[in-house]
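Dissemination and training. As part of the outreach component of the grant, students in the summer workshop were shown how a complex can be specified as a set of sequence lines and then modelled as a single object. The example used during the hands-on session is reproduced here so that future cohorts can follow it. Participants entered these lines:
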Amino acid sequence: CKRKVISAKPHHPSPQGKGEKSHGGDFSYVGIDAILEQMRRKAMKQGFELNLMVVGQSGLGKSTLMNTLFKSKVSRNKSVQSNPEERIPKTVEIKSISHDIEEKGVRMKLTVIDTPGFGDQINNENCWQPIMKFINDQYEAYLQEEININRKKRIPDSRVHCCIYFIPPTGHCLRPLDVEFMRRLSKVVNIVPVIAKADTLTLEERDSFKQTIREELRANGIDVYPQKEFDEDAEDRMINDKIREMIPFAVVGSDQEYQVNGKRLLGRKTKWGTIEVENIAHCEFAYLRDLLIRTHMQNIKDITGSIHYETYRVRRLNESNGQANGVAAQHEALSHEM
Amino acid sequence: MGQQKNLDGYVGFASLPNQVYRKSVKRGFEFTLMVVGESGLGKSTLINSLFLTDLYSAEYPGPSHRIKKTVQVEQSKVLIKEGGVQLLLTIVDTPGFGDAVDNSNCWQPIIDHIDSKFEDYLNSESRVNRRQMPDSRIHCCLYFIAPSGHGLKPLDIEFMKRLHEKVNVIPLIAKADTLTPEECQQFKKQIMREIQEHKIKIYEFPETDDEEENRLVKKIKDKLPLAVVGSNTIIEVNGKRVRGRQYPWGVAEVENSDHCDFTILRDMLIRTHMQDLKDVTNNVHYENYRSRKLAAVTYNGVDNNKAKGQLSTKSPLAQMEEERREHVTKMKKMEMEMEQVFEMKVKEKVQKLKDSEAELQRRHEQMKKNLEAQHKELEEKRRVFEDERSNWELQQRLEQQKMEASRTLEKNKKKGKIF
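and obtained this result:
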């Protein structure tokens, strides 16, 4: 059967305010595009959730970077005058802190998941296991909510959307621990690798280091975000290719402001100059922030929901079909698989 | 203790230091330095900056460019000369330290290496013939701490605890240009606190009677552990050429004491305390090793040492006899080896001569052939030429005849016409 396509004339918002249909004299206007406004209002009422995990050795500036990203102290309490009792934990702990932040009427529930103790021991064998278990536990919790008969209207999303992995700025190549971790975790979560404390590298060293890292990632088959296979169309691919040329981002974090050329900027002051965190000539923090927050946040959440979570769900459902055992035993089998 | 006596005249033994000085200069100095730390902390760059040589250069890249699976211990020697004094510097590098996922016992190869050097020295000291005693003991170990800004890692603490009794450990904060001055202060305090807490005995600068030197020493002690930056690239800053690292926000100068403690480290290590490091190694660490080793022997009554380092209870004469025999066998072996080498060389030479003879012969044949070919060619050409010539002569004659004939015809014609 034939379908008539009614093309609506472009709707120019009248000066009295956004979202108000013009009542005067536009008879061929249907109003389909007003759905964007409805979605926007609903999203603002609901608010957003974002769960970020930071992984890396202690002392790489993870907490500082989180504070810089969200312009507030969102990370775990690392007081500057740290008491000598604050020890490196013997095993990897998972510490999750949630904040409700708001900007221009948009509310966001941000959860920062910290992993102190990762890579700090003498023997770091299997230090990625607690992290993988945590991620899979979140998927499991979501799955359980989903298969309930009486489901909640909005399932609280505690799945890890993005894992930021901090690479120490050695300038040579990835360490075996980095490769192991990223190899295993790129299959269950979006990984965004960053070069931590990038103010220790000159620009040439930074470029050659990045190239080495990209080659090693390719050689080991590690697919970091944005993954090539999930590009939807040519436009996406173009934007993402540009990003892929730049990862890993070389970042510097700071939560202290300094006066530079009459402006107050976030930075680090040394005896030979002040490093401006948001200056792209100095470091790539701005690119990371744009990627995570301003441009690709929704995409990150979509990939987590539609791909990583679905992979987990398929595996779990297949298992529960194949075996007659209880859920607990299957859960154990999953965690042993790692 | 003797009484101190004042002299009435000039005796002259004040020139003793000069004599020692001259002798040392002639003999030259040795120094062995070990660098330990995770890869990528700038150890090779720092060594190059300290001694202003390219120990690790593009042709011979430092061990850190290849990640190792196990900890290796590598030695490189370089002979440096300055102002007539020569220094045989040995750098012991430990690539692979702390790089693996499981780093348990990564310090064991290093401890074994240090012990083996002590053992060598102990053996050469116990020999009867002690004319040559090369000192390859490790005089100083620079331990590189990653600039995390928080404190020491478990690996750092383990390593230093195991090595502080065997070698002079000097901890350094690597890549210090990543820390702001406040963070650096904090970090240093935290490290010193942890070092004291774990009772780690790092190298201590000796107190002297000299007031001036004491002040310098105190200044150094306040800045421990030293935060260093290394670089071999020279950059222009305000018209001056300095060693440094160029960033978009400025230049971190290596030799500027405001920026990092590199000059303090260099002065301390080379200019003021090198001899003291060697003395402490000799008097403290080596003696500890020696007494432990010998006590093990005497306590058990049985010779616990390996066959190589046997401290026999034979009389010196018998030992001398044994050494002489050893020496003789060694000489014989060397002689045999040399003869073998010589024979091999002779054979090679003979072969070469034969080859060149054959070559010459071949060439001779070749040339002869060439000559003959040329000869033939020339003959051929000559024949052709002769042919041509005879042809040409024939033609000429024909022409001439024709001309004659035509002339007589003309003449006849003329005669005929007249008639």
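The CA atoms of residues 130 and 194 of chain B lie 44 Å apart. Students were then asked to discuss how this feature might be tested experimentally.
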